[in-house]
């Protein structure tokens, strides 16, 4: 995998999580800039999916193909479902929910890279 | 909202989100284990699948309202708590019997011990939202 992209995604998602928690602490509901940041992360995750599949097609061998695919595809689900759940009832908790969803992303992306390199 | 329970409003929505992430993690993990290497450790992978079912059930039950789902959530969180304590303890004292990880191995060590804390918070939240009769 391209480690630089993974690190970039992880750092962005971590920062957006922090942003969400600060907003929640200030008693704010999710606002448009925060939602745009989530879309940006999701776009980066789609780019990662495309790169991940291209690398496989070129003959790359992850440690476990099934685990690799599970992380590659699974991490795309978290933000849309999380955002849907967060926005279904708008309150300060919605902002926390977005932060939690963002926190899952670095974990999944870094595990994905471990699996790619044989872990 | 007469006769309804409110497990999925306010802070409860955060709890549902965390449960949802664990449901995804446990289900994917069990799915991969069973699909690719079930013969290596059938017991551990069946436990993995069991944990996944408990998380999925807890997530759905907490996300729904109403007395029946509240009861399902209490059962799911209790089973989850017993599961993490039992599997956690067994995996610490008899590592040979549990060489293959489940979400609950070593009290959820691989998941920052969140699996140990989550059912306690879940049960506390269910007590707070208990339907009054």
Which key features would you list for this structure?
heterodimer, A: 119 residues, mainly alpha, 82% helix, B: 133 residues, elongated
Describe this structure in words.
The complex is a heterodimer of chains A (119) and B (133). Helices cover 82% and strands 0% of the residues of chain A. Chain A is an all-alpha fold and 119 residues long. The mean pLDDT of chain A is 94. Chain B has 133 residues and is an all-alpha fold. Chain B is built from four helices and no strands. The interface between A and B is medium-sized, with 21 and 18 residues.
Helix count from the secondary structure assignment of chain A: 4
Task: Report the sheet with the most strands of chain B, covering strand number, pairing sense and barrel closure.
Answer: none
* Mean of pLDDT of chain A: 94
Radius of gyration of chain B equals 15 Å
In short:
The complex is a heterodimer of chains A (119) and B (133). Chain A is mostly helical and 119 residues long.
List the helices and strands and how they pair.
The complex is a heterodimer of chains A (119) and B (133).
Chain A: H1 3-25, H2 32-57, H3 65-88, H4 92-116
Helix pairs in contact in A: 1-2, 1-4, 2-3, 3-4
Chain B: H1 11-37, H2 42-63, H3 67-93, H4 114-128
């Amino acid at each position: 995998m391209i480690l630089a992209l993974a690190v970039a995604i992880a750092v962005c998602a971590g920062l957006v999580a922090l942003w969400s928690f600060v907003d929640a602490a200030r008693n704010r509901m999710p606002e448009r800039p925060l939602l745009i940041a989530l879309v940006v992360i999701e776009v980066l995750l789609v780019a990662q999916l495309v790169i991940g599949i291209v690398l496989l097609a070129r003959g790359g061998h992850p440690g476990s193909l099934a685990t690799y695919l599970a992380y590659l595809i699974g991490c795309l689900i978290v933000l849309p479902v999380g955002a849907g759940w967060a926005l279904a009832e708008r309150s300060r908790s919605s902002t926390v929910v977005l932060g939690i969803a963002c926190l899952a992303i670095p974990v999944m992306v870094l595990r994905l890279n471990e699996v790619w390199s044989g872990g | 909202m007469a006769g309804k329970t409110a497990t999925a409003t306010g802070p409860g929505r955060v709890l549902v989100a965390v449960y949802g992430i664990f449901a995804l993690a446990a289900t994917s993990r069990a799915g991969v284990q069973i699909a690719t290497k079930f013969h290596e450790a059938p017991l551990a992978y069946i436990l993995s699948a069991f944990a996944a079912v408990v998380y999925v059930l807890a997530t759905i039950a907490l996300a729904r309202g109403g007395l029946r789902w509240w009861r399902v959530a209490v059962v799911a969180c209790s089973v989850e708590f017993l599961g993490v304590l039992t599997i956690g303890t067994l995996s610490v004292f008899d590592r040979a019997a549990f060489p293959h990880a489940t979400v609950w191995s070593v009290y959820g060590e691989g998941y920052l011990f969140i699996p140990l804390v989550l059912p306690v918070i879940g049960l506390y939240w269910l007590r707070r939202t208990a339907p009054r009769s």
